[in-house]
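User: Earlier you gave me the apo prediction for this protein. Now I'd like the version with zinc ion bound, so I can compare the two side by side. Same sequence as before, with the ligand SMILES added.
Assistant: Got it. Here's the input I'm using:
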Amino acid sequence: MTQPSHNQRCGLCGGTCEATTITHEERRGTHLYVFENVPAKICGECREIWIDEEVLQQIDQLIETGVPERKVETPVYDFPRAIAHAH
Ligand SMILES: [Zn+2]
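And here is the structure of the complex with zinc ion:
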């Protein structure tokens, strides 16, 4: 595996993937975890986003033991009730 990772091919369409960073959201039960500036690859053809297995494992670890940068309040809507109150 000496191939630079940014030359990875898209698993969907075979297009060339480019390195990028994304905001990744991970849901665990009722908790939502947000990771900013996550290294990922985006397909130049179909725009599919790919995250390395290694990075996903690191995210798993951070959810368990990591120290978040900050916390945000996440508005949660019950759709029918929210619609009813909107009128
Ligand atoms: Zn693709």
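For your comparison, keep in mind: Residues 19 and 57 are 18 Å apart (CA to CA).
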